[in-house]
Write a structure and sequence with these properties.
It comes from Thermostaphylospora chromogena. InterPro entries: PEBP, PEBP-like_sf, YbhB_YbcL/LppC-like. Belongs to the UPF0098 family. By secondary structure, this protein is of the alpha+beta class. The chain has one domain (8-186): PEBP-like (Phosphatidylethanolamine-binding Protein, Alpha-Beta Complex). It is 16% helix and 25% strand. The protein has helices at 8-26, 166-176, and strands spanning 43-44, 46-48, 73-76, 85-92, 99-106, 112-113, 126-127, 146-154, 177-186. Strands 1-9-8-4-5-7 form a six-stranded mixed sheet. A three-stranded antiparallel sheet has the order 2-3-6, with no helix packed on it. Helix 1 runs parallel beside helix 2. The longest helix is centred in the N-terminal third of the chain and has 19 residues, at 8-26.
Length: 189
């Protein structure tokens, strides 16, 4: 008899890790270098938040301990002449990566998102599934992890529907990324 088939959970974990790895490599998310697919140099986007600070703890209100949902984000430096849509990915940066939010097809003229969007997304924007299979912001829970709030400028809109599988959505974002910016928080308060 052949090898036992991995569980659905194990297959999903492998697919998520592969997709996060693909997004990391293809869109310049790696620690070294800012190159996208085809090794083109990515433009840089500045990402900030009135509630988050680089290398500071994530306020508990934006974690699974709180009730605030997503934190507010702001960005600038999007290459206006080449950007057709934006995407946001919130993920963990340490072992066993998890994706906590995927928002895509954001109008490229948008420069900020408010706190706790819930279903009040920017017009035309869609959300993909997270690592836990849910659609929408899935608050981080691991207290000793780093969380990355990344904004991607894309050279087109994604064809994925609302609730698209995580691996498909991340691969599509990676394929279209022309600029990237990130705000990283460490641990949870």
């Amino acid at each position: 008899m052949g090898q036992p088939r991995p569980s659905r959970h194990a297959r999903r974990a492998v697919a998520i890790a592969t997709a996060v790895g693909a997004l990391t490599a293809a869109s310049g998310c790696a620690v070294l270098g800012l190159t996208g697919s085809g090794n083109q140099v990515l433009d840089s986007i500045s990402v900030s938040s009135p509630r988050l600070s680089e290398d500071a703890p994530l306020p508990a209100n934006y974690s699974c301990k709180g009730k605030n949902g997503n934190p507010p984000l702001r960005w600038s430096g999007v290459p206006a002449d080449r950007t057709e849509s934006l995407a946001i990915v919130v993920d963990s940066a340490l072992e066993n990566p998890q994706v906590h939010w995927v928002l895509f097809n954001i109008d490229p003229r948008t420069t900020e998102l408010g706190e706790n969007l819930g279903d009040n997304l920017p017009e035309g924007a869609r959300q993909g599934r997270t690592s836990n299979g849910k659609v929408g912001y899935s608050p981080p829970c691991r207290e000793s992890d780093n969380y990355r709030f990344s904004v991607y400028a894309l050279d087109g809109k994604l064809s994925q529907p609302e609730g698209a599988p995580l691996s498909e959505t991340l691969a599509a974002i990676a394929d279209r990324t022309i600029a990237r910016g990130r705000l990283t928080v460490i641990n949870i308060e």
